[in-house]
Amino acid sequence: MKSSFRRLAMSSAIALAFVATTQSPALSQKKDVPAAPAGAANVIGAPQTQVEGFRSARFGMSEAEVKATIMKDFGVKADAIREQANPGERTKVLIVKVPDLLPGGGVAEASYVIGYHSKKLIQVSISWSKAIDDKMTPEQLFSNSSVLRSHFMTGGFKPDTVATNMPINGGLLMFRGSDAKDRTVMMILQGTLAQGEDNQRVLTPTTLLLFYIADAKAPDVYRLPPGSF
Questions:
Q1: 4 Cβ neighbours under 8 A, 6+ residues apart
Q2: Is the Cβ–Cβ distance between 204 and 189 less than 8 Å?
Q3: Which of 6, 50, 142, 204 is the most buried (most CB within 10 A)?
Q4: What are phi and psi of 25, to 5 degrees?
Q5: Coil, strand, or helix at residue 182?
Q6: What are the boundaries of each domain within the chain?
Q7: CA distances for 40 relative to 10, 155, 215, angstroms
Q8: What are the tens digits of pLDDT across the range 113-149?
């Protein structure tokens, strides 16, 4: 492939060992935080970021507050917000489609996860794909991810939590970083892999996922009590 996707080529010797799913607070439960890449030095002098949610939505808001915030932020009516249950985690997700959430980036879908115990906002995820926007292209997904990665790299995340361009199962971890309270931003570019030149695996993007997570280590989702099985 001779397009810009050559920058997504990965050595076939690298193990892809990180499973990405949508709408799951448990997504980022990794025991070991990857070492900061060379580019992380650029964020050391930046003002420290605080990951408090997305736009006007703040972690800890009630479902009613989140709905009101969605309507205010995107100028939509209540019937534009779709509700979806996550039976496994017993959380509730509020979903809305937003044109040009990222300027020029196409239609995105924003999902707000309401926690199992707290009934409060615990995560916001943003997704772009052809299933959401039939005009979406691999080139647009890659462009969106590059713009967002550059933005986050100057965001003042803790340098030892910053990771970029890491091969994972079915794609690339384009960015991951946490603030002083370990609230996390994570962006994943998923796609199909094909064998390219020089024994490299080339990724053609199909979905871009962006997560704002209140507590990646202990998400507020349903867990079986210890010893129950």
A1: 139, 142
A2: no
A3: 142
A4: -60, -25
A5: coil
A6: 4-17+30-213
A7: 21, 11, 22
A8: 999 999 999 999 999 999 999 999 999 999 999 999 9
